[in-house]
Design the sequence.
């Protein structure tokens, strides 16, 4: 019976923090745009050794992720480590008459509706606690 060969040890790829690739935002910096996100994703994936990823490929990934989140929002679409996108049902409200500033006002009825809500995970909330 032959002895089993020991498994080769794989050197872990050193994780560069996100800040190292982007740099911390400064007071006067503008918002983080979609093009910055796509460029960052392309650079980060390429730097981790998964092959060259173009901005076009990273843009397609972002578009597909967005579409997927919208489709599955009705049942809850999770983003691991960040939170969950859910579709919330708003119940119908009946018509009523209210008194405001001494005048009677009629408030029309509102039908039931839906609202997209993002619920942040505990980890995300703890990250921004002071």
Sequence:
């Amino acid at each position: 019976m032959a002895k089993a060969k020991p498994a080769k040890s794989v050197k872990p790829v050193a994780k560069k923090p996100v800040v190292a690739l982007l740099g911390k935002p400064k007071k006067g910096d503008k918002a983080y745009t979609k093009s910055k996100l796509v460029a960052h994703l392309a650079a980060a994936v390429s730097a981790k050794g998964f092959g060259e990823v173009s901005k076009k490929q990273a843009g397609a990934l972002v578009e597909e992720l967005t579409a997927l989140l919208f489709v599955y929002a009705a049942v809850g679409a999770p983003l691991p480590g960040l939170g969950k996108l859910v579709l919330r049902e708003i119940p119908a409200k009946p018509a009523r008459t209210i008194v405001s500033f001494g005048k009677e006002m009629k408030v029309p009825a509102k039908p039931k509706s839906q609202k997209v809500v993002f619920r942040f995970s505990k980890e995300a909330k703890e990250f921004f606690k002071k």
Observations:
- The first strand starts at residue 77 and ends at 79.
- The chain is about 30% helix and 20% strand.
